[in-house]
Amino acid sequence: MTAQFLTPEELALLSLVQNELVPSYGDLPPAGTLGAALTVDAYLAEQPRLRRPVLTTLRAIEVRAGKTPFAELDSGRRVEVLRKLENADPESFSELVKQTYNAYYTRPDVQASLGIDGPPQPMGFKLPAFDESRLARVRAMGKLWRDA
Amino acid sequence: MAAPELDSDVLIVGSGASGAAAAWSLSRRGLRVTCLEQGRWVDPSDYAHSRPDYELARQTSFAKDPNVRSWAEDYPINNSGTPIHPLMVNAVGGSTVHWSGHFPRMRPSDFRVKTLDGVADDWPFTYWDLEPFYDLNDSMVGVSGLAGDPGNPPRSPRQTPPLAFDAGCEAYLRGLEKLGWHWWPSDNALISEPFGDNRSPCNCCGPCDIGCPIGAMSSAHVTYWPKALAQGVQLITHARVEQITVDRAGRATGALYYDEQGVRQSHSAGVVVMAANGVGTPRLLLNSTSALYPNGLANNSGIVGAYLMFHPVALVSGVFEEAVNGQRGPIGGLMNCQEFYETDVSRGFVRGFELQLSRNVGPLSVANGGILGYPVPWGNGHHEALRSRYAHTMTTSVMLEDLPERQNRVTLDSELTDAHGIPAPRVEYRLGKNTQRMLEFGIARARDLFEAAEAVEILVDPLVRESGWHLMGTCRMGNDPDTSVINGWGQAHECPNLFVIDGSTFTTSAAVNPTSTIQAIALRCADWLGRNYREVVE
Ligand SMILES: Cc1cc2nc3c(=O)[nH]c(=O)nc-3n(C[C@H](O)[C@H](O)[C@H](O)COP(=O)(O)OP(=O)(O)OC[C@H]3O[C@@H](n4cnc5c(N)ncnc54)[C@H](O)[C@@H]3O)c2cc1C
Ligand code: SF4
How far away is chain B from the Cα of A30, in angstroms, using its nearest Cα? Predict the structure, then answer.
């Protein structure tokens, strides 16, 4: 699948960033490898208000990375760059993080890793019935309201 | 009946909690009722609950802040002057289309604040005057809960039993029992067993705040509207009212509105009933200027829009070692604790608050900060942090009584307008001293509760910005025309065939969610208007 909004370079960079934001867990690859960049790309295509913070952050990354491209840094150095960026422009950076979480946690495979076996409906959940006996102490408190 | 040349006997503006109840009540008496609603019917396919990305709806199509949601039917609100943002839904059913359905009643003392505690004003009627309408409303909408709470006057049996008692309740109970505090399973405007037509009982799916796709939640579009329409009420959707019109004698004659095609229309009626909520109603009255009402309709007193009350809310979350699965079951009303509800001046403030012991949200919302806005950190350790919170967190609201203050108000913005060019509301609000002291005290008690419940981490949002769920007081009731807009029947002091029946009627706010009271007031006012219609229009 190709991006609808981002350039191929931006998409690749976003994917690398996302791998640092949400690393692998057990059998689950990190967010970028899982394809979260393409999902964020779709959000950007649909919601123009997201473009500025995400693009601002992506552009600032290569500036912060300096002479060595971000892609050639090791993970520790990438995280350093991202932390600096976060401190410099927390608002834009947090939007990028939020959209990455949006893309990652809406995936059924990620949800399955948290024990979720489907969306809330139509199955819902079966919870135990209310047990009135638990109210014995409170019932014995007597009238607690003021008449007026 | 009004003169036959009029379009309707009664014109209601707004189809939400109060407008729906009044439409049903008035049409039952054979009156010709029309309701103008700027929104549309929410389409069943709009609900996101069956999709894996359902939690995104909180940020987009079902966001509770209309400025964020930005449906075509929404109007913008200038929030720059308030730390609390007004929240609402503009659709058939109004703000009950996606809400939490927590449905407590006010207590008798809430109606006598001046007499008992020497602050604010007494209401022009008592709890006992309203009680039959609370009962009627419950029987119409369907409430789950349990009668017998010693914190409140006895009440009629609830229509369906309380929902469930799961691990989260056990965690709360651990704390409550240690502290010896009051608690009771909440009354909720949702059905736990079959009730009503075309509605399914709650299956505890969780995210009620993005609507209920199966009709379990007792929202006005599934409770009153089908019955009101069957009784012949005309509901015109996509009808955005611009102003209430008046004749030379200063009586309301109907409304001007924009229809779905954006064409300006007029509608005449013998009586106009405002049900556009605590922001929408003062906005429209202020925009309805004329020679007799240069400051807005029924506003020669200058009170329309003033005395805005929210329920300022602090949220306190407890993270538990064991799984409490707060994402399962209706998010809002679970249990409430009214240990600190009545005045005790030794606490340093008057009036009181309730602790609403609620549930929590799914993994995406937890990652993005949960109900409190504490995002899970990114990078190494992200997964562990997420897993320690998700399914392990319960959240309590400290919901307190907000005293009415004149400078807290809704006005018309001088520049901002909606899509039709109608001035948008501007909200100016600040927290009073009593409120600030009560918030601090309430947060400390919520901490006590979570500590006693053995939470391993406690998170606090001391004043939630997106907590303007309850919009009250901006056309307040009272017997004195200098300090109130309407009398105890909702009738405007200055304009006898204009009525207000929504959240703006509240004289004081109490410390509980308002909608059961809003609907009981709407039914009481509509009942009186129905019985006295002839005298009102003559
Ligand atoms: C997210 C959320 C959660 C909530 N949870 C709870 C809860 O648990 N318990 C509780 O008691 N309350 C809760 N509330 C509040 C509750 O929804 C309101 O108290 C209640 O709906 C108010 O009723 P109302 O009739 O005053 O106005 P609304 O229900 O808001 O209805 C007003 C209607 O008027 C229409 N309108 C406004 N202006 C115009 C115009 N110019 N022309 C035409 N139509 C117009 C609007 O479109 C709307 O449909 C919640 C609210 C929100 C937003
Ligand atoms: S938890 Fe119950 S009331 Fe809430 S949305 Fe799900 S089914 Fe509806």
Answer: 10
